[in-house]
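Q: My collaborator sent me two sequences in one message, no labels, and asked for predicted structures for both. Can we handle them in order? The first one she listed is below.
A: Yes, handling them in the order given. First sequence, followed by its structure tokens:
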Amino acid sequence: MVYYFHGIALGITLAFLIGPALFVLLQTSLHRGLKAGLFIALGIFLSDAGVLGLCLAGSSRIFTQELNQNIYFKILGGMVLIVFGVWTLTRRAEVVPETNEEGPPIKLKVPGPMVYILKGFILNISNPGVWFLWITAVVSTNSAYGAGSSAIYYFFAGTLTTTLATDSLKCFIADKISNKLNSNIIIWTNRVIGLLLIGFGLVLGLSSIVNFGNIFSTYGGFKG
């Protein structure tokens, strides 16, 4: 059971990492409320669990090959981040009036739970940094506890439950803050987070192109 608490320590550390999934988690909680944010958190949790499962099964070898074999994966991840960023940047704030004494109640079209879960899942799993993080964690725990040891599963159970708990706490805090926000603040929040997502995507995509150019020139030099 002590290994479970070791995993909690890693989960708390991961809670302070800043990335695209964190921005979307907070933005969704601010814009759509606690329940929507929790569904995003669930999607992130499921993608983390899926990536971790593949790494534990030995599929991490696919993602630890030479850099030129990972370029297309990084470019795809960058494109996904840019698409989410543009969509977030251009979306409009939806503010429900506190009272509506005249006429029927106003209903806003709200996406279903699966939309939020898939959004969190796709956004997280398309980030190569998530893969490399879990690959590193699996390699480290295999070295520390021994490959196939039950301690590894206790360790990662602690890590995953902690990340889900901390993400849920972030949603709760963001939802409480949202009560004090007006439409202008929400619009600017969307713009900032959209630009950050686009920035993450551009950095990821451009770094892949630069690495591809270096590899191409290296091999070209040998052939010439």
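Q: And the one she listed second?
A: Here it is, processed independently of the first:
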Amino acid sequence: MTDIKNMTEPEAAEQLAYLAKEIEKANIAYYQNDDPYLDDAQYDKLRHLNDAIEAKFPHLIRADSPSKRIGAKVKSDFKKIELKVPMLSLADIFEKAEVSDFIMSIKRFLNSGEDI
């Protein structure tokens, strides 16, 4: 992981430029070409790194920042599917404590107090 704590402003600007390009490239590969080259964890790390740098250096937020958009335009010939059961997402869970929060949200969704 990049050391944001000791990052200089020029390093931050360079890293944000790299992240904007890399995340856009990953979005196109995933959403338009159906050929992702990053797994979800790798992609999430890039997004979180971008967000952390922007939080420390808000004056360096780029017009093409990934934090200003979600994903990319989806290829028009992708088939839509209807799910019989809603997909509940783990979102961005990286810590053990966040798993407990996720389990509680599942219990609320299921209207259940039972252990899962």
